[in-house]
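Onboarding guide, step 5: your first structure request.
Type a short instruction followed by the sequence, for example:

Predict the 3D structure of this protein.
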Amino acid sequence: MLQPVTTTRQGRHVQTLSRIERAAIAAVIGPVLPTLGYPAPSRRAVAAGMIVRLGVVPTRVRERLELHRLRRRLRTPADRYREVHRVMREDWAKVGRYHREQDSAG
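The system replies with structure tokens like these:
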């Protein structure tokens, strides 16, 4: 059942989120908060959040680029099937090498 919006939970994020998490959120949604009736985050929190997000964004960009390259290279189901099995063979070869090394060391 839907209930009316109240301000009883306002400010709860201070107890549940870390300072870094709050800063990252402030950098993303800070400009919208006053429009929604919430106090605007401090400039320092927004700046800190932008710095925090800079550390996260390059990783995501690399992941997205790699995914895009894979999708471009593996266009058909047969291509994807071959790639999955190639990776599985490589993994099994690594496992086999590991076990041979352990057997020879022990």
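Each response can be followed by summary notes, for example: The mean pLDDT is 83.
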